[in-house]
Design a protein that fits this description.
By secondary structure, the protein is α/β, with parallel strands linked by helices. It folds into two domains: about 90 residues, no CATH class; about 230 residues, Alpha/Beta hydrolase fold, catalytic domain (Rossmann fold), CATH 3.40.50. It contains twelve helices and eight strands. Helix 6 links the parallel strand 5 and strand 6.
């Protein structure tokens, strides 16, 4: 996200691409000279989104700092602005399309739910016209602890906007301040809002809904396949999971990626001791440090739910897609790297096996050597996987 007050940089609200305060009238992105404030702002926004997408917003290569926190770091912001500013001023070609920016796109932020004083929001991206559009719902990742609606996968955003879809990217309350049942309730309520209010508010055809998400967003995407009624039309889970209590989550992680933060427990718990939030930018503490602590101790399931996964496993079952596949489950595409040390590749294999058992329309796209987010995989294979994701969705949304 664009840095906010206190960083010394222009606010998101000053960029032409966005409406004032993110909640006003439709904001328009016009085809102007590339070096105008709106286009420049969009490039910066896209770069920040891509930085957030790194490892799905879980944490950065900097010890103990999650990507969302880094986005507010003055030093990084100055570097990003400086580099892009130099490119523009030197007249070097910077193609906005190459970083996922679509022309004539409008975005508006809505509040789809209120819990006490907390507003839970969604961003809607669509072509700046009055045509009724098919809809894709994006669910962000972040271990149910981090992230927010601005972290839409750049490739997904570009592919579907270019093809004429509207994209609804939702927030939901985050753990551990909010526990698993309420998080799932938010997701269910978001879909009810999209179906009931979407046609009038932002001109979509809500009779069919595609759902896509990565990492924990992939888990939530798979969860919509059995929790949301009526069920979505088609799902794509990028490096997601259907199991919440396996050893990979309920025992200490041996992987270096989870050993970067060594904050003492009392300090770690202070990071997430505030009120309920629905976007990690609104948390005063460092959710990334808390996530690392959970993985080091093997306590993530208990911290996000309040239940002991070893003694109360059955309490998790209503929220585990791998336990809830039936013949009514939607068509699903799974994309996963074989070397994923954050969410094991076996998680997608488990889901694929359930789909085979119940004869569900599905496919598992495997990226050999791919880490979390597919890093390290063959770029050509990754490109093909994203194209496959679009084709899989588009064919089923069109009823082909």
């Amino acid at each position: 996200m664009i840095p906010s007050n206190g960083t010394g940089f222009p606010l998101r609200y000053n960029i032409n691409y966005f409406s004032p305060h993110g909640t006003g009238p439709w904001a328009k992105q016009k085809k102007k000279s590339f070096i105008d404030q709106g286009k420049f702002g969009n490039i910066i926004e896209s770069i920040y989104e891509k930085l957030e997408i790194i490892q799905e917003g879980l944490f950065s290569p900097v010890k103990g700092i999650e990507v969302n926190d880094m986005m507010h770091a003055s030093k990084l912001g100055r570097i990003v602005y400086g580099v892009i500013g130099c490119l523009v001023l030197l007249g070097l070609p910077v193609n906005p399309d190459s970083i996922g920016i679509a022309d004539e796109v409008r975005m508006q932020t809505y509040t789809y739910k209120r819990v006490g004083d907390l507003e839970i929001k969604a961003n809607v991206y669509r072509a700046d016209d009055e045509k009724v559009r098919p809809v894709v719902v994006w669910i962000h990742g972040g271990a149910l602890i981090m992230g927010g609606r601005n972290g839409v996968n750049g490739r997904v955003k570009k592919m579907f906007l270019d093809a004429g879809y509207a994209i609804v990217s939702i927030d939901y309350r985050l753990a551990p301040e909010t526990k698993l049942p309420a998080i799932i309730e938010d997701v269910e309520d978001a879909f009810e809002w999209v179906r009931e209010k979407g046609p009038e508010l932002f001109g979509i055809d809500s009779s069919k809904i595609a759902v896509l998400g990565g990492s924990a967003g992939g888990y939530l995407t798979l969860t919509t396949g059995h929790r949301v009624k009526p069920r979505p039309t088609v799902l794509v889970a990028f490096w997601g999971y259907g199991d919440l209590i396996g050893d990979w989550y309920s025992k200490p992680s041996p992987h270096p990626r989870h050993q970067r933060s060594k904050m003492p427990e009392d300090q770690v718990r202070k990071q997430v001791s505030g009120p309920a939030i629905a976007n990690s930018k609104d948390r005063n503490g460092n959710g990334g440090a808390f996530y690392q602590f959970c993985r080091q101790r093997g306590i993530w399931p208990k911290e996000v739910s309040g239940w002991d996964p070893h003694k109360e496993a059955k309490k998790y079952y209503p929220y585990m897609p791998v336990k809830n596949v039936t013949k009514q489950y939607p068509a699903t595409l799974l994309i996963h790297g074989t070397n994923d040390t954050d969410v094991p590749y076996e998680q997608s294999v488990m889901m694929a096996n359930q789909f085979k058992k119940f004869h569900i329309d599905h496919e598992l796209v495997t990226i050999a050597g791919g880490e979390h987010g597919l890093a390290g995989g063959d770029p050509k294979k990754i490109d093909q996987a994203y194209k496959k994701a679009f084709q899989f969705v588009h064919q089923r949304m069109a009823g082909k």
